[in-house]
Predict the structure.
Amino acid sequence: MSAQPPVELVLPFTGRWIVQHSPASRVPSHGTELFGSSHAIDFVPVDANDRSAPRSLGSVFGTEPPDAFVGFGRAILAPLSGEVVRVHDGEADHVARRSMGAQLGYALTQRSRIRGGAPAIAGNHIVIRSDGALVLLAHLRAGSVRPRPGDRVDAGDAIGECGNSGNSTEPHLHVQVSDSIERNGRGVPLAFLRAGAPAWVPLNGEIVVV
């Protein structure tokens, strides 16, 4: 039996981003298949020097405010046309945790977030349905989510802003395709369209510029 073909998406942003947790580097990309995340990918906004934020005492020894990061509030766009079937907003954008100590402490609270379900993991998020597939865009900035359930969006429409809500250690965008975003959801392969070349999945550490 042939492998399931990927759902093709347009890149849901502009600017400069670095790839993390890519399914092109390993599957499951986030180390788990829970919540349909087996083929998910993360994009972190960066500056011209490929930094998400300048280094500070907080980045080494503690935490940092999310608005210290270059991508916090950057526009997020619909990666395909479809119907908005789920919207969640109102989760706070919490502090960023780049230091080893802060990340370790955060990791110890992971079980409680899993018990909290999709809102605790995805934070503020949007789910778009197209041809039976569900496309999740997660960790959006509090108060930035524009569509409402039942709305129709077209690829490239502004739908929210990059934030640091949910299971996130710094502002970034999580994108996945799945049959459900609940705990037992099954992930679906994805790929991104680009001009003059076949659709692809960027590798961990790859810089994507739109």
In short: The helical segments are 57-61, 100-107, 110-115, 118-122.
